[in-house]
Design a protein that fits this description.
128 residues; 5 helices; 3 strands; globular
């Protein structure tokens, strides 16, 4: 679990300001999502892109998804992208903050087989 410093956050984007990319990484269930959510808590416009499959028959997974839902502020938009992460990112309006949860799972599930995965990975890297 990440230790969250309540005094740290990232300022919301300002018109004309260069974009920033912040990567939060760590092992499974280490608090990455909670930390990323904390960094954006004061941003007025946030799109939360969920990359994971729903897995309706996995009770533990459903509990984790519900915990994520409960933590997110009501004003955040949520998009469940499936395999369409690149097109979702490209369709976002400028000037907002975006939280992608999680790139690791997306890469693991969407970039194989290698024949089509290389194209997906290349498009994702270009988009980011």
């Amino acid at each position: 679990m990440a230790v969250v410093d309540p005094s740290s956050s990232v300022e919301p984007p300002v018109a004309g300001q260069a974009s920033r990319l912040i990567l939060v990484s760590g092992p499974t269930r280490s608090g990455k999502s909670r930390w990323a959510e904390h960094l954006l808590k004061h941003h007025p416009v946030v799109t939360y892109i969920a990359t994971a499959a729903a897995r309706p028959d996995d009770r533990d997974w459903q509990k984790r998804l519900e915990a994520h839902r409960q933590r997110r502020p009501d004003h955040w938009s949520v998009v469940e992208c499936g395999a369409e992460l690149v097109s979702v990112i490209n369709g976002l309006a400028p000037g907002q903050s975006v939280l992608i949860d999680a790139l690791g799972g997306f890469v693991a599930h969407q970039t194989f087989p290698v024949s089509s995965g290389a194209m997906t990975a290349t498009c994702l890297l270009t988009t980011l």
